[in-house]
Design a protein that fits this description.
- With 104 residues, the chain is of the alpha/beta class.
- It contains two helices and five strands, in the order βββαβαβ.
- The chain has a five-stranded mixed β-sheet, with helices on one face.
- The termini are far apart.
- 17% of the residues are buried.
Length: 104
């Protein structure tokens, strides 16, 4: 019996995103962290962390890799205006939610 029960759906900020990426941008590189489901262990996740040069070719290659990994959301954090190439290239590749937070 459901009398008096109310169902409240999760807000967007409360949802668990299965395939995510974060990029911490500096002047010459971005530190990339990709978190996706483990390829063989159900219910487990795996993270990969690596540096990507802040060049058009490297960021375009990263965008292709993230699209291939079916990343659902990307967050970009940056010092100064170094975020621009990362944001625009990732957005142009169709990656959703490329949010920017600048420091300094």
């Amino acid at each position: 019996m459901s009398v008096g029960r109310e169902e409240i759906p999760d807000a967007d900020h409360e949802s668990v995103i299965e395939r995510v990426c974060a990029v911490d941008v500096a002047k010459a590189t971005g530190k990339v962290c990709l978190r996706v489901p483990h390829p063989v262990a159900d219910g487990r996740r795996v993270s990969r962390v690596w540096d990507v040069p802040a060049t058009l070719a490297a960021v375009t290659g990263l965008a292709a890799e993230l699209v291939g990994a079916r990343v659902e959301r990307v967050t970009v954090e940056s010092t100064s205006d170094y975020w621009r190439i990362w944001f625009y290239v990732l957005e142009a590749a169709g990656l959703r939610g490329a949010m920017i937070r600048t420091c300094g």
